Amino acid sequence: MGKIKENLVNNLSVDDFYTLQEMSDEEEIRYKEWLQSDEYIQFVNEQLAETNLEFSMVDVQNALIWAKSAINVEPTDIGKDVYDILFIEKVEEHLNKIRYDKF
């Protein structure tokens, strides 16, 4: 097994391992070339950009406080499941407002 396959196998799930075992030498060469390409660099940069924090801790805390005050019913009146859904919607509403205000 080539070094590329060996490195990948150490970080893969069982299903991915069996798929990788079926990789031909030609596919391994193409994969190695892809790792050296600009497309790979762009792919990695896009993945890293998705991990950047969109909201600060203060934004999240403010959203939680706002959601708590925005709901005017008690959990016992509507049930915990429904209350949780309302709470989540209110938090998302506040965070979306922050997101769109930035533009």
Structure description:
- The chain is mainly α and 103 residues long.
- The chain folds into 2 domains: 3-49, no CATH class; 57-101.
- Helices cover 76% and strands 0% of the residues.
- It is built from 7 helices and no strands.
- α5 packs across α7.
- The longest helix has 22 residues, at 80-101.
- The model has no long low-confidence stretch (mean pLDDT 81).
What is this entry, summarized?
The protein has 103 residues and is mostly helical. It has seven helices and no strands.
Helix % is: over 70%
Unreliable residue runs: none
The rough form would be described as elongated
Largest sheet: none
Q: Give the mean pLDDT.
A: 81
Order of helices and strands: HHHHHHH
The N- and C-terminal alpha carbons lie at a distance of 50 Å
Secondary structural class: mainly alpha
Contiguous helical run count: 7
The number of E-state strands comes to 0
Radius of gyration: 23 Å
Number of domains: 2
Beta-strand fraction estimate = under 5%
Main features:
mainly alpha, 0% strand, elongated
What's the helix and strand layout?
Blueprint: H1 3-9, H2 14-21, H3 25-35, H4 38-49, H5 57-70, H6 75-78, H7 80-101
Helix pairs in contact: 5-7
